Structure prediction request, 344 residues.
Amino acid sequence: MKDFKNKVVFITGGASGAGFGQAQIFSEAGAKVVIADVRDDHLATVKKYFDDKGAPAHVIKLDVTDRKGWAAAAEETEKTFGVPDVLVLTAGVNVFGPAEATTFDDYDWVMGVCLGGVINGLVTFVPKMIKAGGQRHIGATVSYGAFVAGATTAPYTAAKVAVLSLLESYWIALKPYNIGVTALCPANINSNIWDSALKTRPKELSNTGYNVTDKGQNFLASIHKNGMDPRVLANWLKEAIEEEQFLCLPYKHAEAMVRSEHQRWIDYTTPGGQKLVDIRPTLPKSKLDGEIMMEREGTSMMDAPPPVEGQEAPPVAFGNFDTGGFAMANANVDFVKEEKKYKA
Prediction:
């Protein structure tokens, strides 16, 4: 798909961060954008933005875990602009804490939005896109987290791995219908995903094993503010759609990144290789390792010295913030190691 003029682009999480960047870029390319988001304040802001520009845009309040809400959003979109030519599934949430402290509510919330929201979008719109015919495309903002695992990211990375595999299945399945699929996998983005744990987590899913405080989330915000600009990220997605590219890592060293992250799976297949997985983090980093880390983490690295071959890559500068127990367990979790629990 090379021309977006008068195309209908439906974007979840479209009222802030990566989604808003996508709404801007596709609108500027001539598309009619439908912006779905769960936050009224963000929707009001983007509505004014596009009204002031006189650009064709429509906002819809949508909780991506609500299947009845999806059906209503699809009907409203068709009545307003028509069946989407491009479906972009960007809505996401995150929260950090020790995997062993994760509760059912932590899983249900994060995976409900990050995985369930994508499933709901696909099941709602794919049949309509097939029936409408013509060239169409589906994009989803996955995450670099789809390639990694972490002791404090279990629900999020599990959801993202699942989304990447899900999208690949649809990429294969939808080729005969002339519908392309793109999985966008950025690392650090300048977004407000950090705010979701405080502002959009449902009360009925509030039982968490993690320490989540204003101070801790502000620390996370200090990391995200140095990430990739949403408009830059959106241009990567637009170009990937134009090229009918399935996997889009928005970095110069994309191929090296994927090879590096998947080396561990090869290593896991033998006892000797598994030992390499354990010791590799302690080995000196190459110049390429340093360049890749700079790309992933964003402008927080701008003041760091350039990477030198054979030396440790420079540390990421996260700002002068008290971490507030970020990514630690609640103090009242009685089975994790004491050093993993936050003590105010």
